[in-house]
Amino acid sequence: MSDPEEALLAFWRERHYATLTTARPDGTPHVVPVSVTYDPDAALARVVASAGSRKVRNIRAAGPSGMPVALCQVAGRRWSTLEGRAHVRTEAPLIAEAERRYAERYGREPRPNPERVLIEVAVRCRMGRG
């Protein structure tokens, strides 16, 4: 692809995993692998997670203003980072939409999880080489 912007967006549609970086209550980074979907039109990234996971607890501990986070995926020399503010969402329709997008990107339904929540990231900055 000759358009760098389109190449970067295409990279976020391919089947890759990413890392999510949050901050623990003591300020140290917590980096974990995640499945993520990115909607550039809405400037939203979505990660489905278990309510009791460390990443969810970290974001919730930040309070109602959310937490600055980074999502990064890499494949060979291609990489991209999405930065933004994360909030934990529990609304069933939002979780269902995130699950639908997950199935579309990863080619399978997410495993059943009655404790599922949505980490929604309002993307403010996108960088990389796609």
Automatic annotation (TrEMBL):
One GO CC term, this protein: cytosol
- Transmembrane stretches in the record are none
Q: Which domain of life is it from?
A: Bacteria
* InterPro entries membership: F420H2_bilvrd_red/Heme_oxyg, Pyridox_Oxase_N, Split_barrel_FMN-bd
Oxidoreductase among keywords? yes
GO molecular function of the protein, one example? oxidoreductase activity, acting on the CH-CH group of donors
Q: What is this protein called?
A: Nitrilase
